[in-house]
Amino acid sequence: MITLTGETLNFAQLKRILYEKEKVKASDESMEKVIKSRQSVEKIVNDGKVVYGITTGFGKFSDVFIQKKDVETLQLNLIHSHACGLGDPFPESVSRAMLLLRANALLKGFSGVRPVVIERLLELINKQVHPVIPQKGSLGASGDLAPLSHLALVLIGEGEVFYKGNRQPALDVLTKEQIFPIRLTAKEGLALINGTQAMTAMGVVGYMEAEMLVYQSELIASVTLEGLNGIIDAFDDDVHQARGYQEQIDVAKRIRGYLTDSRLVTRQGEVRVQDAYSLRCIPQVHGASWQALEYVKDKLKIEMNAATDNPLIFDDGEKVISGGNFHGQPIALAMDFMTIAIAEIGNISERRIERLVNPQLNDLPPFLSPEPGLQSGAMIMQYAAASLVSENKTFAHPASVDSIPSSANQEDHVSMGTIASRHAYEVINNVRRVLAVEAICAMQAVEYRGIEKMATATKAFFHQGRKIVPTINKDRVFSKDMEAMATWLKRAKITIHSTKNQSLNLS
């Protein structure tokens, strides 16, 4: 059981909650802050004060005063009118993350909701009832209004949920699980939807997959180095210490660790004096992507524990301020950065694929074909990888440089952060498939060189990989192989305890 405080949620806990389905509860201290904040809202309503979103309309309607008798209707109308999501739903893991992050934000005690709202969010998490939330429709400022409205629908017994592998009406599942719908009161609808939890949830799920993918890319690149008799000298620690980037130093160290007992890699001058950049510059390119990912991780860690709704309530209600913490610009920029960083992992991987299949660039059979000419081998696998990296270049155009005014120009600058996070996830999935192609080609290449000469670490990867994709002894429908390898990479783990002690878990 993980205790949420609104302040301390981290990636290790997030992984346990999202993927191991660990249950959550609210800390007593945070709930006390929630109660005090709620008392402030009730006083505002009873005193008839004019406070945005509590006793006024929303957006351009912020100057319209709402009578006490209508505050509940205001919140219900807000959820109904703002549930304008479109397109396919977010992955279920992202929906679960949205529930978690919204509950954690409300527990900070600045939002003015009743404890029951948070209790219902935690019930949905603990009973694995996940709202169906369309991916499209958020501008990423004034909060992820449309996606979070679909989340809020479930709390009032409307909308749809994912439950035990099926998509079902929310009310049916709530009834079955004895989760009682709530009636939203003053401020609560606004507090649920005025936040960055859609882009942040998509971002944290994407980041965790991206992190594993880059680790996997280093191991796959190591197999490629063996398949091409790559020169290990380029990974010498002195080279990377001379430049000074720690991430670059670490990548080189991990690759040296993977190849420590390989008899397929060479020394400079044995086969050639130096390798092409896609081999020689792996630490520099991958290291730069790691730098970007560190930036992304830092911003996500802050946003996971941030108060992002509006208005915020301070000093027991003495200070209620309309601000702009719902603006997703910090996450939008981070997501664009992650998109570019992961796209580059795919770009350099595709160039290594080309070196594995192009007979003008190696001494292997053309296109790794068992019968060159009669059989095409991996020729079109490289085409597929090239298509994916080219598609990634369109996704890598920054979403955050765009803005469009909304709500009659009241909301005249927006972040597009949710679009940025979705694009990042598309790129992650594409790059996983590119790495799948590199893995298939690299495994084929080392078979020609001699599996017995492989390093211990890369040989372990090879034997596990061959359980997924058999050797190419004749042409077949390679689409199935590429997808099977990508699926395996998504679930396979490479555990890196440190750069000094790395271990493989490829089950």
UniProtKB/TrEMBL annotation:
Q: What is this protein called?
A: Histidine ammonia-lyase
Description of post-translational modifications: Contains an active site 4-methylidene-imidazol-5-one (MIO), which is formed autocatalytically by cyclization and dehydration of residues Ala-Ser-Gly.
Primary location recorded for the protein, binned into one broad class: cytoplasm
Identify the pathway. Amino-acid degradation; L-histidine degradation into L-glutamate; N-formimidoyl-L-glutamate from L-histidine: step 1/3
Its EC number(s): 4.3.1.3
Q: Which SUPFAM superfamilies match?
A: L-aspartase-like (SSF48557)
Q: Which GO terms describe its cellular component?
A: cytoplasm
Q: Which NCBIfam families match?
A: hutH (TIGR01225), PRK09367.1 (NF006871)
Could you tell me which residues carry 2,3-didehydroalanine (Ser)? S142
Cross-linked sites for 5-imidazolinone (Ala-Gly):
A141-G143
This protein's UniProt keywords: Cytoplasm, Histidine metabolism, Lyase
Q: Does the keyword Lyase apply?
A: yes
CDD domains reported in the protein's UniProt record: PAL-HAL
UniProt-annotated location(s): Cytoplasm
Q: Which GO terms describe its biological process?
A: L-histidine catabolic process to glutamate and formamide; L-histidine catabolic process to glutamate and formate
Q: Which gene encodes it?
A: hutH
One MF term in the entry's GO annotations: histidine ammonia-lyase activity
The UniProt similarity line reads: Belongs to the PAL/histidase family.
